[in-house]
Design brief:
This is Protein containing tetratricopeptide repeats. With about 650 residues, the protein is mainly α. The relative contact order is 0.06.
Amino acid sequence: MKRILRKTIPSLLVLASLGQSVFAADEKKPERALDLQYGKVLFEFYQQRYYGALTDLSIGELRNNIIHHGDHPQVLKGGMLLSYGMVDEAKRIFESLLEGKVTPEVRNQAWFYLGKVYYQMRKWENAKFSFQRVDRELLEDSDSELLEEYFYLQGQTALGLEDLKAAEAFLQPLPKDSYWRAYLEYNLALNQRKAGDLDAALRRLARVSAPTPQEEDDPNEFYALRDRISLTTGVLRMEQNDYAGAMTEFRKVRINGPWSDQALFGYALAASNSGEFGLAIQSLQTLSSKQAANPIIQESHFAIGYVYEQLGQKVKALNAYANAVTQYQESLRLLETNIAELDEDRLFDSLEFGGNPELHITRLDDDNIRVDEYGRLDVRPATYSLAHLVAQEEFQRVLKELRELTLLQNTLNEWLRKVDNFDVMIDTRKIAREERIRETREKMASLDADRIRAERDALAQVIAEGEAAGDGAYFLTEDQLGYKAIIERSRRTIELMRQDPDWVEDVPEYEEKLRRMEGFLNWTVSEEFPERLWGAKQELAALDTALKEYSLRSVRINNLIAKSEQLETLEQRVDSAKPRLQELSDQVRRALTRAKTTVSDMARDELLRQRDQVNYYMTSAKLARTRLSDELLDGEGGGL
């Protein structure tokens, strides 16, 4: 079924990856994911990291940043939950989609996957109801391969309802070279046999053919299906007492295929029943020479003795039974050892992950492990004692759950480490920020902003008044101010001289000197006025720069203080995340422990079942050996 599994979930992406049906007919359809978050979801999905895809999808829903793809992300989410075996959660999603106002494409897919949910739950009537509401033409337009699965599931649902006629009707639209058709027709044959119509079952099996594998397909599926058809046909031939026909079918099964042991044993039974004991012995000896815990191989040891008895060769039969007892004792010894030493490490060491035994993968979080679109692991037993267990759907489900829990535990551990790193980072930033705040405050204190602002305002007023009056007297130097003071004192002295008869005659002379002094000052001030005005403006600009620097530092320190508050908020978030992450980690660890216990218990139960079976074989062989020994001792044994 690998080829089929490769085609199932990707069908979800026909619409989900682009969200194209969200747009009206006259709108331009997008050629890529329009939301970055949804692009991340699809990337994780295509990398077969379904936990990451579901996580990113949940984040997108929480942050409301997947808005351009309509309801298709929900279809994808429901499909992934369905692949995890979370049928109730998937069912709620699809039912919610059907209750809302959605596009015809989404509604159609929702009915299809809701039917699939009920199919997996074995609720046949509900599955039939859902599948009947799928628009076949619309589904065919969206994905023809999904349409093939649709017919297959309807046929399987009909078989679940024991409606063989309806199941047969769903074969007609399936292409002749479809694996879906081959599996449905094979299952229909089994149901016909179950209903007691062996002839109809055989006729149908004769029509079943495994499709020729394409270049991208795994040829093993083709050969395995072909072998299975031949094996089943052989079994049905035996039920009709057509032993020659059964032997012909069993011979078609590959000697190195997965059904070779069953075919060899079936061939031996058919040959024995047809009286060809030599062929039966030859087949059983080939089977018994294999070193495996296969129940059929175990049974073959006893069957050799039985066939020899039918031939009347009791001595050989006795030896065969004795050999069977020895084989069973060795098998029991190995089983007891495996049961006693069974633990998680030994169990995974007995499994081959990824289809490449050379890699010797024993960790469930190894990136080399291959999974299909449903998250099922590519795992094979390294020993036959686990073959029956690995083939069970429940074991596959628990193993898949164990892998996902392991990956989740790794993610949580990584986040716990990140939280610890955040603590160090926040502490470092807090220290650096407090130091910068201290340094900035010291520099601000040294600027004396109030004094500078007062000086600046006074200077600005002088410049404005002086420039408006065009009077250089506003910009006198210290020397010029002193010279002006001398002129004022001289003017007062001359006034006193006017009142003194002794000096009154000298007043004109001193007035002339004063006029010259005042004229020189005014001329100098007038000449230097532009330069003095420019210098004053430069000084004003310097004061403005100082005040601007003060303002910037004030803003900076406020920002630093605000960021300190942000750091405190981040610190609170990190501190609150720790217990939540730890609680989740503890929950996952407990779930991991339960899953590991379940896997180990399943393996132990399987080994115990095999031990009971081998004990039964050994008891039967011992009884047969004792019976033949007594017969031979009593002189009733046959010849060699």
